[in-house]
Amino acid sequence: MNNLQATTTLHNGVKMPWFGLGVFKVKDGQEVIDSVKAALKHGYKSIDTAAVYENEAGVGQAIKEAGIPREELFITTKLWNSDQGYETALQAFDASLEKLGLEYIDLYLIHWPGKDKYKETWKALEKLYKDGRVRAIGVSNFHVHHLEDLIKDADIKPMVNQVEFHPHLSQEELRAYCQKEGIQLEAWSPLKQGELLSDPTIIAIAEKYQKSPAQVILRWDLQTGVVTIPKSIKEHRIRENADIFDFELQSEDMEKINSLNKDERVGPNPDDFEVGFK
Q1: Is residue 275, in this structure, part of any structural domain at all?
Q2: What percent of the chain clears pLDDT 90, i.e. is strictly above it?
Q3: Whole-angstrom distance, CA of residue 36 vs CA of residue 15
Q4: Which residue range forms the structural domain that includes residue 132?
Q5: CATH number of the structural domain spanning residue 175
Q6: Is 111 annotated as a binding residue?
Q7: Residue 185 forms beta bridges with which residues?
Q8: Burial class (CB in 10 A: 0-12, 13-18, 19+), 18
Q9: Helix 86-100 and helix 118-130: axis angle, to 10°?
Q10: Which residues bind substrate (predicted)?
Q11: Is 86 labeled as catalytic in the residue annotation?
């Protein structure tokens, strides 16, 4: 884990970068094109989007303009709740693929569990995987009970679970379960939408390492074994966020950050959420 191209190996052997760019709430068109191109220019290989972000076309355009060989990139997108179900999931995948202008996706995720269709949806993802149209499949915002329920009837175990994860929500039970099952945990909102950047404990640790609070939190993610995808539209911030491979947090500082957990979310609880949150 010593450079931006460092990867973790998913349980099917596919290599996934530890670090990437998220594009949640980045406007389609020039804003997302510039953001993705800046990330690729500075060595990022992993880009994370979703159907509901409505910026897949811009992400695809940026990939095309950047001219980096496709096999060097790791592109993630996600199926939105209203497209859950077997046939609708297959159609939604085709729509995402077309918008991105790609021949395959590296990682396709069910965005939220919802209430009653995720098993049927998972069968569609298994088909896409078996047909070679996606290199890895996974879920997002799944609790332990969702994963247990899914796995008992699945042919293929999810390779990734992308969840809200930051020092105020360290997801210990879920992390332990995913580790036991060989499911890679991935963080969305790793900085708690900026709230954690003013935390006195984080600031003190940042001063010790001569790093920014954001860099300390993102380094904590990686040392905890969690893939992370911070979002930014500013080139200097995109570059700065990734400058976390030249230092290592000591165990005492890891413990200090671990102690900040409050089981506090900035997004909805997946058990209560069906459609409305973007």
Answers
A1: no
A2: 96
A3: 20
A4: 7-194+225-232
A5: 3.20.20.100
A6: yes
A7: 161
A8: buried
A9: 50
A10: 111
A11: no
Q: Please give the distance of CA 175 from its chain centroid, rounded to a whole number.
A: 15
How does 240-276 read in b/e, with b if 16+ C-beta sit within 10 Å? bbbbbbeeebeeebbebbeebeeeeebbeebeebeee
Grade residue 277 by pLDDT with cuts at 50, 70 and 90. very low
Q: How confident is the model at residue 40 (pLDDT cuts 50, 70, 90)?
A: very high
Interval 190-220: pLDDT, tens: 999 999 999 999 999 999 999 999 999 999 9
pLDDT of 33 reads: 98
Number of domains present in the structure of the chain? 1
Specify if 212 maps to a domain. no
Residue 218 is assigned to a structural domain of this protein: no
Written as one letter, the residue type at 132 is G
Catalytic one of 53, 118, 129, 177? 53
- Establish if 242 belongs to a structural domain: no
Q: How many Cβ atoms from other residues are within 10 Å of residue 106's Cβ? A: 22
Q: What is the pTM of this model?
A: 0.97
Structure tokens at 196: 């954690």
Q: Which residue has the higher pLDDT, 174 or 273?
A: 174
